[in-house]
Amino acid sequence: MNKIVLTDAERAVVSALVDEVFDRVDVWDPVAMVDEVPGLAERLPLRLREFLVNSRMAEADVTVVANLPVDENLVPTPIGWDLAAKTGAGQREELVLLLCGTALADPFGWATQQDGRVVHDVCPAPGMENSLTSASSAAPLTLHTEDVHHPCRGDYVSLFCLRNPDAVGTTFVRIAALDLPAETREVLAQNRFRFHPDDSHIGAIVDLVEGEVRDRVFDPGSVIFGPAERPYLRFDVDFMSAAGGDTEAEQAIQTTVDCLARSVERVILEPGDAVFVDNYRVVHGREPFVPRYDGKDRWLKRLNLIRDVRRLYAMSDTRSRIIA
Question: What is the DSSP letter of 317?
Fold first, then answer.
């Protein structure tokens, strides 16, 4: 794991930069700020900027920045992302994540997720405890590629911890750690798989027993792709399927699930920790926990990052960072 711990002096520089922005911004709007943030990010501490740029160039699997500023008077954890959006909870922390994330890649969002917000709130919500979304808690989030269904899925998914009192682990597996049989790798490298949008994109709860996910639209492709010496991975067992009747591909999916289970690592984020997961080299998930709904629950900010924002523009008819 690639990690940097900011000194208190470096942390103060980041905090002062955030203060400066909020002193002149009347209404906080991350979508409106994304074009300004790269210039502001040039004023982050030099050691932090060099660390993030080097992580990008090395294609580091998992990158952690620790001791980032979190408001000492942080408001209670919102009960669901929609309450966070309405109240503007954690706006300073959103800017901190945007500043650091921009040093790696370009922020973007989805019209189908959290009302088109760029920075998301990850916090438990009543009634969603066992869902397959970031609002879940009692059920683990299985290891997955973020937004596996889309050709413009992020190069990185980043999480900034504001609160994690139960030391809930973020789980992950690096493709380099997967000891897959050669015959399975060969199947996974072929375009024999279908990748479907997850529940957060369609606003529904999947019925895995009935296999409803197979009826959704899909993007076809392979699980393993890219350079042979450092391949990339695209996998989400809950929202992918083999092409109709392809039993060999179905077995390859199950073999991969079994292999992932033997290779899991975890990182416990503490307040002030931001993790940047390479969405092409790593699948990630989350351990289960019991929500309190008392203002003290686990609370993260999430930001998707793409190395070339023009990929988004080229796929649409508008110069927007929000994928419709």
Answer: S
300, 160 contact by CB (below 8 A): yes
C-alpha Rg value of the chain to the nearest Å: 19
For residue 41, which amino acid is it? A
The β-bridge relationship of strands 299-306 and 119-122 is antiparallel
How confident is the model over 33-72, as pLDDT tens digits?
999 999 999 999 999 999 999 999 999 999 999 999 999 9
Structure tokens at 220: 């076809």
Closest of 77, 290, 111, 270 to residue 203, by C-alpha: 111
Q: How far apart are the first and last CA of the chain?
A: 34
CB-CB neighbours of 274 under 10 Å: 22
Reported as a single tens digit per residue, the pLDDT across 268-308 is 999 999 999 999 999 999 999 999 999 999 999 999 999 99
Contact between 239 and 135 (Cβ < 8 Å): no
46 burial level (CB within 10 Å; 0-12, 13-18, 19+): exposed
| Cα 53 → chain centroid | 19
- Rounded-to-integer distance, Cα 131 and Cα 153, Å: 21
Tokens 């906080």 sit on residue:
28
CA distance linking residue 135 with residue 258, whole number of Å: 26
DSSP category for residue 114:
G
- 64, 2 contact by CB (below 8 A): yes
Structural tokens at position 33:
């700020």
Tokens standing for residue 238: 């809950």
Q: Which amino acid is at 45?
A: P
185's enclosing H/E stretch is: helix 182-188
307: nearest Cα among 62, 98, 105, 103: 105
Buried b (16+ CB within 10 A) or exposed e, 57-74: eeebbbbbbbbbbbeeeb
Q: What is the pLDDT of residues 219-228, one digit of tens each?
A: 999 999 999 9
